[in-house]
């Protein structure tokens, strides 16, 4: 946290760690939803191989949305998942959500495969089509 310019107080750290763990678990659930598109290809569950925080690097999607008037994310991570011996990179943009009473932090996660292969593009198109067809976009 200090590397990122934060000055945490020791009494706050238990809550910070709990929020951090909850956010990481939520991000992993999003990754697993993407990986479900490939469940029939492999008998092994996907596993996180490595990750890298990139708080000062904005994804192309985040920059595009910012040009359209949206705020930039406050953080970004790239996670590399092992899918049956094949490395698949995911981009996770972290956006601040609207404050809510009684909630210590509110945020939105934008989790998707990095556009570094034709397969990743295909996955993103398939997931978007499913999202539109389900009508879930009306709820957000």
UniProtKB/TrEMBL annotation:
Pfam families from the UniProt entry: Cyto_heme_lyase
Record's protein name: Holocytochrome c-type synthase
Keywords: Heme, Iron, Lyase, Membrane, Metal-binding, Mitochondrion, Mitochondrion inner membrane
Matches recorded under PROSITE patterns: CYTO_HEME_LYASE_1, CYTO_HEME_LYASE_2
Family: Belongs to the cytochrome c-type heme lyase family.
Principal cellular location given in the protein's record: mitochondrion
Known catalytic reactions: holo-[cytochrome c] = apo-[cytochrome c] + heme b
Enzyme Commission identifier(s): 4.4.1.17
Primary role: Lyase that catalyzes the covalent linking of the heme group to the cytochrome C apoprotein to produce the mature functional cytochrome.
Any coiled-coil regions, as ranges: none
Lineage: superkingdom: Eukaryota
InterPro entries: Holocyt_c/c1_synthase (IPR000511)
Location relative to the cell: Mitochondrion inner membrane
Species, as recorded: Tetradesmus obliquus
């Amino acid at each position: 946290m200090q590397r990122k310019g934060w000055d945490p107080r020791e009494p706050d750290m238990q809550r910070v760690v709990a929020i951090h763990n909850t956010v990481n678990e939520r991000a992993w659930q999003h990754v697993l939803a993407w990986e479900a598109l490939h469940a029939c290809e492999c008998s092994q569950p996907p596993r996180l191989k490595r990750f890298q925080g990139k708080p000062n690097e904005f994804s192309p999607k985040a920059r595009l949305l910012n040009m359209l008037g949206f705020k930039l994310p406050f953080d970004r991570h790239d996670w590399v998942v092992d899918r049956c011996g094949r490395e698949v990179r995911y981009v996770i943009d972290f956006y601040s959500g609207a404050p809510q009473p009684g909630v210590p932090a509110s945020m939105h996660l934008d989790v998707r495969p990095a556009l570094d292969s034709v397969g990743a593009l295909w996955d993103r198109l398939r997931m978007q089509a499913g999202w539109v067809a389900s009508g879930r976009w009306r709820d957000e």
